[in-house]
Amino acid sequence: MSEKPRLIYFNGRGRMESVRWLLAAARVEFEEIFLDTREQYVKLIKDGSLMFQQVPLVEIDGMKMVQTRAILSYIAGKYNLYGKDLKERAFIDMYVEGITDLMHMILMFPFSPPEAKEKNLALITERATHRYFPVFEKALKQHGQDFLVGNQVSWADIQLMEVILAVEEKTPAVLLAFPQLQAFKTRMSNMPAIKKFLQPGSPRKPPPDDHYVSTVLKVLAEE
Ligand SMILES: N[C@@H](CCC(=O)N[C@@H](CS)C(=O)NCC(=O)O)C(=O)O
């Protein structure tokens, strides 16, 4: 039996949260090591665990994987969440990259200075409403299936679900004009693996707070 993947990151969402989502959707149990101190991070660099001196780090199948997208595509490929042919993969990749661009704005938001918060929040809502969500609304409608690509759940669906919930936390009414996305959210929430991940006590992390922000800044701070 292969060992459980080991996730090494901060005790918070950041770039690792999509990995947690994808593993949870694939019903893969995993272990986590949380970085709380600069010493832990420096040790990882010194022992050669971090190819580019950056986290996330995921130990899986004998590899020390870095680069979030590489980690996610490995998991998606391994657990049949990456389409059935090259064309399906191409669409999954396009959807995932779009979602990642929106998600990046969300994960950087807690680190923005107080005077930029209002503007950045408005930009997230604007981009979700006018650039990203309309694409997925239209895709679901035209495709006529429960999922974005093909007729089975993929990496793109999991990341779309993650970003929908993340934007809703900031702007609760954001889905009002998107009936397809509302129905998609309900369907995804009812999938047993996702349902479990959304329940309290799962490895899903809460929205970032001041403690999370100060820990990240402390751990990554240059001497
Ligand atoms: N392209 C990388 C970026 C990783 C990254 O920027 N990680 C941050 C923490 S979330 C980090 O380790 N920063 C330290 C540094 O860049 O020196 C990925 O997607 O995994």
UniProtKB/TrEMBL annotation:
Residues 85-209 form the GST C-terminal domain. The gene is LOC106493242. It comes from the Eukaryota. The keyword Iron-sulfur does not apply. Residues 3-83 form the GST N-terminal domain. Pfam families: GST_C_3, GST_N. The keyword NAD does not apply. Keywords: Transferase. It comes from Apteryx mantelli (North Island brown kiwi). Belongs to the GST superfamily. Alpha family. PANTHER family: GLUTATHIONE S-TRANSFERASE, GLUTATHIONE TRANSFERASE. This is glutathione transferase. The lineage of its organism: Eukaryota, Metazoa, Chordata, Craniata, Vertebrata. Its EC number is 2.5.1.18.
